[in-house]
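User: Hey, quick favor. My workstation is busy. Could you predict this chain's structure for me?
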Amino acid sequence: MNRNLLIALTALIFGGGSTAVMAADAGKGTVKETVKNVAKGSASDTKAADSKAADSKASDSKASDTNAADTKAVDSKASESKPGAASSDNAQNMLIEEEPLAKVVPDTAAIEKKIPLIGELIARTPNDDKLYAERGECYAKLGKDDKAVEDYNKSIELNPGFQETYRLRGLSLAKLNRIADAVADYSQAIKLGPVTYELLVRRAAGKGLLGDHQAAIDDATEALKLKPNSVEGLVVLANHEAALGKLQDALSNLNKVLELDMKKGDAYLLRGFVNKSLGNLKASEADLKMAAELGVKVPETATK
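Assistant: No problem, here it is.
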């Protein structure tokens, strides 16, 4: 039976694209998890999405343009041990998003021009938290998440009670592979309210990466109450159910995923390993074959 457990996010995701390796200790029955790297881009079956924008200079008090919803990439290996599910060797990016969101391609040139203009405004009004948050989003859209975090830090220092800035900083922290810090920001955003599907499912993925699979299941379950037919939410839930050996529950949720999206390659991969662990070898073979046809890399050991 398969030893390594797929914990897809997802990026995620959970925002960001962090890659994790789950390894079950056959002797002690423990689960070890190591965050290995940050992967960007998209797997063949993932989508790209941006959250809607709000101008910081508008009359309302909303935050500025919200940045792109990030992917969360998680990889694992396959070997032999107690029941569980394994992922492909390459990172598979799982998008955690608030559906439906418009696909937006950032205008890099316009964003680069905007940053010094915001800097000039900050020089004039250095205590405007929204300006720092807006510049932070610009940096995040350019992939400069370290600079984004610096601006979000200043924004939160000036206004520690604004939920959106914690959400945005959480996304950038996740991309920097600072998973615990990202989870803390999602938790603070949830505390400030309102509680959203996105915050819950991103925190679920993050908690899973930190090894707290039951907490991940709890958050994913709450997220699905807000969006019952969320493919990504169901995948996150199934991942962590598989990690805890709740294979029948994982199988049931993966069946729901594939009823909603027949081209979800990662779901076929995970279901293939779950079926293999349950002894459903023909079903496992069919799932792994379908995953490969959909562009997901299937470990060579998965078919042995």
